[in-house]
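Project standup — Tuesday

K.O.: blocked on the structure for the chain from last sprint. Re-posting the sequence here as requested.
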Amino acid sequence: MNLQKLMAQQTSLRDVPAVAAGSSVAGARTTATLGPDTVTVESCFRIASLTKVFTSTALLRTLRDRSVPLDTPVVELLPGLAPDWRADRSITVEQILSQVAGLRESVDGATASALGDGDGALLEAARLVVRAGNEREPGRQWSYYNGNYFLAGSVLAALNGTTYESALEGNLLGPWGFARTGFDNPATSDTVTGWSGTTRLPPLGYPRARRPSGGLWSSVSDLLAVGEGLLGDRALLVEIRRPRTRPDDPMSYGLGWALGPSGQMYLNGRLPGYRAAMVLIPDRDYVSVALANQDTALPALARLLSDMQRPLTGDDMAKPVEDFAA
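H.V.: unblocked you, prediction finished:
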């Protein structure tokens, strides 16, 4: 596979200031960059909803380390929210990670952002989520809602007795050596500026209450490494890739990942000025990722990742990767 050639064939990427992509097959990596802005596979982009990969992986590792079953009701792990809990008390950790908890989707980004940046902001966002109750019975229907991950991040923090950020660092980012991944704006030389059309966007923070669902900066090299780490932990991967959705749901979904027709795991992320997408094929020991700093880049990134994996599966994954609900 000539990745540089595949990137050049995506004509709509020619107007994107910076694109970085890579794949890993059994640990052997191929990477490439494109665009007038000088970037490398170590350069840091906003990865938006790809953050959920880190949140779910860290939480699953913590649950395993503490012998906490996936079917544990969330209210048992967040007892401080019990007085305000109007949601179904049977909702489990498995259901929030797989977006089938049936929660009423009433807590949007602006509401969560208004909670400020104190250590308690995330738990207060989780409180608002469960106070709103349920829209439907848990497990009945898949629906993508960041409030599920406000709860997941709160559970991760509670089980580790610290903040969500410290728990993520101590359980995953540090042990797995992700030096280029974090919530703080990286050094200027490492940061890729986002663009919306022809408008260069100023660097913006990401509210603490929303971080488990989409707050990280990361690089192609670190995202390939998290994929490689998952491929190396087969027991964890078995849980992640098992579908938790019903046949009439809009997509097949595991724990934090959409599931493709040939065993692919995939998702995308979108924030103003940034687009990101990722594909794993566990049975082929394969992971790929593509990052860009332009609002319009997602269709081309999806096509690129589809073309990269197509020799292995025969599947056209461009539309599923693009249409993923992030």
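K.O.: great, moving the ticket to review. The domain at 3-323 is CATH 3.40.710.10 (Beta-lactamase). The longest helix spans residues 298-313.
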